[in-house]
Design brief:
The structure holds two protein chains of two kinds. Chain A is mainly α. In chain A, about 70% of the residues lie in helices and about 5% in strands. Chain A has nine helices and two strands. By secondary structure, chain B is mostly helical. Chain B has one domain. The chains are: A mainly alpha, B mainly alpha.
Chain lengths: ~180, ~200
C-alpha cells in the first residue's frame, strides 16, 4: 500500500530538508564510483595512493578535485558511503513492514511483464543496460535524481533545472514508446 | 562518529520513504513517465517545494546553516547526462537511489541494475578525460550558481534577485504545480475500462 502523494511528498520533503539541515544535501550516484574505486584498488593496489597532503589516483576521475574521491575510496566509512548502505537497509525494513514483495514481481515488475512478457533474462538484461546508461549519464551530469533533481531544484541551483529538463525530455518519450500496454 | 550515526538515520529514513511512495517500483515509475499516473510526479514536486520552503525559511530565520548548501556546476554535460539518465530510468524503471533501495526490498532485477550501474560508472571514470578535453565539462552561465543570490552563500546568483525569497516563491510554485497536475495526462487506451 503506497502513501498518498500528499503524505509521501511531505515525508520526502522532510527527509531532504533534514539532510541539508543536519549535514548536507542528499546525493547517491557518486557512491557507485567510490565502490568501483574500492573494487579496483583491491585488484590493483596502486589505483589509489597516499600523498603527503592527501590521496591521489592513477585514474584522472578519482584524482580530480584534490583527490576527493580517492580519499573516500581509502576511507569507505564516511558519511556518503554509509548513507547509501543505510538506504538498502531502509528498503529491506520497509518491505518487511509491508509484508514483502511476491516472487514474480520481485523478478519482473508488472508493467514490464504486461509489455514484454515473462522472460527473466530479457528483464535482467534491460535492467543491466538501463543501469549502465543511468550511471554513465549521472556521472557525466555530476549527479542523479537525488543530487541534481531533488537537492538541486530545492536549492534553486541552475544545474538542477538543466538536469531535470534533460532527464524528462528523454524519459517521457522513451517510456511512451516502450510501455503502451497498461496494467 | 556523529556523522556516521546521522548517515545511518537519514539513509534509513530516505530508503523507507522512497519505498513507501512507490519510487522503488518500476511499474509506478513507468506509469509516471508514460503519463498514465502522475501521483509520483506530484509527490516529487511537493517534496522539492516543501524542502525549499523549509530550507530558505530556516535560513531567513537563522535556524539553517547557509554553509550546508551544496550547489553543483552547470555545464553542457549536465544536459547530455540528464538525457542519458532519463533514457535508462525509463528502460529500467530505476535511478541510482531507487535502484539501491529496490535491491534492499528484495527486487532481483534491481541487483542487475546496480551491476550495470557499477560498470557504467567505471566506463565514465575511464572516458572522463575525453569529455573534459572536448570542453563539455566547462562551466556555463557561471557554473555553480543559484537562480537568485542567496545571502551568505558561497555561490553566485544567476540574477541579483534575493535568492532566499526567490527560493520560497519557487517552492510555493512547485507545491501549487503538485496540486494542479492532473493524475493522468495520457488519453485512455482504446477499449480500456476507466480506473475504479
Amino acid at each position: 500500500m503506497l502513501l498518498n502523494w500528499k503524505t509521501g511528498g511531505l515525508l520526502l520533503g522532510l527527509v531532504f530538508f533534514g539532510a541539508v539541515l543536519l549535514v548536507k544535501p542528499i546525493g547517491v550516484s557518486t557512491q557507485f564510483v567510490i565502490l568501483d574505486g574500492i573494487i579496483g584498488d583491491a585488484i590493483a593496489s596502486d589505483l589509489v595512493t597516499r600523498t603527503e597532503d592527501g590521496y591521489t589516483s592513477t585514474n584522472a576521475y578519482l584524482a580530480k578535485s584534490d583527490g576527493k574521491y580517492a580519499k573516500a575510496v581509502s576511507n569507505p566509512l564516511n558519511y556518503s558511503f554509509v548513507f547509501v548502505a543505510a538506504m538498502i537497509l531502509g528498503g529491506l525494513l520497509s518491505s518487511r513492514l509491508r509484508g514483502g514483495i511476491e516472487k514474480g514481481e520481485r523478478e519482473i515488475p508488472a508493467l514490464w511483464r504486461a509489455n514484454f512478457g515473462d522472460s527473466k533474462v530479457k528483464r535482467y538484461a534491460a535492467a543491466f543496460a538501463g543501469g549502465f546508461i543511468v550511471l554513465y549519464g549521472a556521472r557525466l551530469a555530476g549527479g542523479c535524481t537525488s543530487g541534481h533533481m531533488m537537492s538541486g531544484m530545492m536549492q534553486t541551483s541552475l544545474s538542477g533545472y538543466i538536469f531535470t529538463l534533460g532527464a524528462f525530455a528523454a524519459a517521457i518519450p522513451v517510456s511512451l514508446m516502450m510501455f503502451k500496454k497498461e496494467v | 562518529m556523529t556523522t556516521i550515526l546521522l548517515a545511518i538515520v537519514i539513509g534509513l529514513a530516505f530508503g523507507v520513504v522512497l519505498d513507501r511512495i512507490g519510487a522503488t517500483n518500476p511499474t509506478v515509475v513507468g506509469k509516471m513517465l508514460n503519463l498514465t499516473n502522475l501521483n509520483l510526479a506530484k509527490t516529487i514536486l511537493l517534496a522539492i517545494g516543501i524542502g525549499s520552503l523549509l530550507m530558505f525559511g530556516g535560513q531567513m530565520l537563522g535556524l539553517v546553516d547557509v554553509g550546508h548548501m551544496s550547489v553543483k556546476s552547470a555545464y553542457i554535460g549536465v544536459f547530455i547526462g540528464g538525457l542519458m539518465l532519463g533514457t535508462g530510468w525509463a528502460v529500467a524503471g530505476y535511478c541510482p537511489g531507487t535502484g539501491v533501495v529496490a535491491a534492499g526490498t528484495g527486487r532481483k532485477d534491481a541487483w542487475f541494475f546496480i551491476a550495470g550501474g557499477l560498470l557504467g560508472a567505471a566506463a565514465y571514470m575511464v572516458t572522463y578525460p575525453s569529455w573534459k578535453a572536448w570542453g563539455l565539462l566547462d562551466a556555463v552561465a557561471g557554473g555553480k550558481v543559484t537562480l537568485g543570490t542567496v545571502p551568505g552563500a558561497k555561490y553566485d546568483g544567476l540574477t541579483a534577485l534575493p535568492g532566499d525569497v526567490l527560493g520560497i516563491a519557487l517552492g510555493l510554485a512547485l507545491i501549487a504545480l503538485a496540486f494542479a497536475l492532473p493524475t493522468r495526462m495520457s488519453p485512455k487506451a482504446p477499449g480500456m475500462l476507466p480506473a475504479e
